Amino acid sequence: MEFVVAPVETQSMLRRWRDGDATARDRLMEQLYPELERIAAARLRHEATSSLATSDLVNDAVLRLMATENLQIRDRAHLLALASRVMQHILVDQARAKMSGRRRHVKVELTTQAQRGPRIDLLALDAALIRLKVLDEALMDLVNMRYFGGMTIEDIAAVTGLSAPTVKRRWETARAWLADALAQPIPS
Question: Between the CA atoms of 32, 44, 159 and 165, what dihedral angle is there, to the nearest 10 degrees?
Fold first, then answer.
């Protein structure tokens, strides 16, 4: 049985967190933990070189969020989108550190299920997202929320204020642009 946090209760905890109530913050994070794990699992599924476990990525992201001052989180969807973006930054930072030679190790992956979909080069994806941000920052945000955050079209519509059909069309545009950018990367 999955526990779902009521929107009113979530809003109340967010408000109390903004007012400095650490207990409300901790309770909210505890209740949203399963969703944060789902987001982290989705991010790690698409990332080829991370040595982080799902729970490690969630914990690192939560710690970074908790350390950030003056967070202006509007609602549950906004918090999940922000957590997803923080997870992306953690994974990019880790990939950059590995590329710089500071951390040398071999990832050993034990799995009992077939991998879903191809692994993506996180650095190439990050470079493509930076290019997309220059062209259309809203599309880059949409990719972060949908692809990495696992947010639904409806959640994204609620966060952005756009209609669901508009979000769906923009998502299709962003996917097509990214597919092309990853197929034809700009040489470094």
Answer: -130
Q: How far apart are CA 52 and CA 37, in angstroms?
A: 12
* The dihedral formed by the CA atoms of 78, 83, 84 and 86, expressed in degrees to the nearest 10: 130
- 105 falls in which pLDDT band (50, 70, 90)? very low
- 167-176: long-range contacts at Cβ-Cβ below 8 A with a sequence spacing of 24 or more? 167/142, 170/138, 170/139, 170/142, 171/142, 171/146, 173/139, 174/132, 174/139, 174/140, 174/142, 174/143, 174/146, 175/143
Contact criterion met (CB below 8 Å) for 171 and 110: no
Give the pLDDT band (50/70/90) at residue 103.
very low
- pLDDT of residue 2 exceeding 70, the answer is no
| Domain segments of the chain as ranges | 7-106+118-183
SS3 47: strand
> Tell me, what's the pLDDT at 49?
67
| 168 CB-side CA count, 13 A | 4
Give the Å distances, CA to CA, from 78 to 81, 106, 113.
5, 35, 32
